[in-house]
Specification:
Blueprint (H helix, E strand, L loop, with lengths): L15 H12 L12 E5 L2 E2 L2 E2 L2 E5 L2 E6 L1 E2 L3 E12 L5 E13 L5 E2 L4 E2 L3 H9 L2 E5 L2 E2 L4 E13 L2 E12 L5 E7 L11 E9 L2 E12 L6 E7 L3 E12 L2
Parallel strand pairs: 1-10, 5-8
Antiparallel strand pairs: 1-4, 2-3, 3-6, 4-5, 7-8, 7-9, 11-13, 12-15, 13-14, 14-19, 15-18, 16-17, 16-19, 17-18
Length: 246
C-alpha cells in the first residue's frame, strides 16, 4: 500500500495533493470488503424485538456504518454533504458522510437479503473440524449380497454428507423393496429424517434405471435405499445424502 513519510525536516508541504494521496492510499483497503462478497453484514445489525442494532455492512463492495432503528424492509444509503469556507471566502462541499439505514420502500436492497459472514477464526475452526472417511457398507439382510463399492463420508461441523456407489444382488425369491445399509462411521444425533437423491440402475442393462431416495431416520442406524430388485438381479446404486446433526 502507498504511504507518506512525514518524519522529515525542512517543513513538510502539507497541501491538497498530499491529502489526496492519503485518501487514495486508505481507499485501497476497501478491496478487503470483497472477501465476503458484494453485500453482507460485517458486524452488529442484530434484530431483536422488531428493532435492528447499529453495525457495519458492505453494499456493492462499499463499507458503510449502519444506523439502527425499527426494522423495515429496505436499506437505503444516505449521504450528507458538509460545506467549508475556504481562504478565498467561498464555501464549498468538502465532507461526504455516507451511512446505511432502514427504509420502508425504495433504497438499494432488502434488509433480509443481507447475510452475516463468519469471521476467519470461526471459519478456521470449521475447516479443522472436517473429516473425510472411507467406509465399507454392510447389509442387514442376508438375502442381499454386496459387491464392489466405494463409499465416503464427509463431515464438517453439523454437516454430514454420505456419497459413493455400491453393487448388490438380491438372492431372495421375492422382490426386495428396500435395502438397509450400515457400516458407516458414527455421526451423532440427526435432526430429523433426512433424504438424499439416489440413481439406481441394473448392472447388465444401464438403460434400465430410475431415481430413488435414500434416507437416514433419527431412530434408525441404517441408510435405507428404496429400490425394487427382482430376485437374482444385480443393481448399481449411486447415492448422495446430506444430513444435519444436532
Amino acid at each position: 500500500m502507498n504511504k507518506v513519510n512525514f518524519e522529515q525536516t525542512g517543513g513538510f508541504p502539507l497541501e491538497a495533493n498530499t491529502l489526496s494521496f492519503l485518501q487514495s492510499a486508505y481507499g485501497q483497503l476497501s478491496g478487503f470488503a470483497g472477501l465476503g462478497g458484494q453485500s453482507y453484514i460485517l458486524n452488529g445489525c442484530t434484530v431483536a424485538d422488531g428493532n435492528v442494532t447499529d453495525g457495519t455492512i458492505v453494499i456493492n463492495g462499499e463499507v458503510l456504518p449502519f444506523v439502527g432503528g425499527p426494522k423495515l424492509s429496505r436499506v437505503i444509503i444516505e449521504e450528507t454533504v458538509t460545506d467549508k469556507t475556504f481562504e478565498d471566502g467561498v464555501s464549498k462541499p468538502v465532507y461526504y458522510t455516507r451511512v446505511a439505514k432502514m427504509a420502508a420502500a425504495g433504497g438499494v436492497m432488502d434488509f433480509d437479503s443481507l447475510k452475516r459472514v463468519s469471521n476467519l477464526m470461526a471459519l478456521s475452526d470449521r475447516i479443522k473440524d472436517q473429516e473425510v472417511i472411507k467406509w465399507g457398507p454392510v447389509s442387514d439382510n442376508t438375502s442381499i449380497v454386496l459387491g464392489t463399492h466405494d463409499c465416503w463420508m464427509f463431515k464438517m461441523g453439523r454437516l454430514v454428507v454420505f456419497s459413493g456407489y455400491l453393487y448388490f444382488t438380491n438372492t431372495n425369491s421375492a422382490t426386495q423393496n428396500s435395502i438397509s445399509i450400515k457400516g458407516f462411521p458414527a455421526i451423532g444425533n440427526i435432526v430429523t429424517t433426512q433424504y438424499g437423491l439416489t440413481d439406481v440402475s441394473k448392472s447388465d442393462n444401464m438403460t434400465e434405471r430410475k431415481n430413488s431416495l435414500v434416507y437416514r431416520n433419527t431412530d434408525d442406524p441404517f441408510l435405507t435405499f428404496i429400490v425394487t430388485a427382482p430376485a437374482n438381479t444385480t443393481w448399481l446404486i449411486n447415492f448422495s445424502i446430506t444430513l444435519f446433526t444436532v
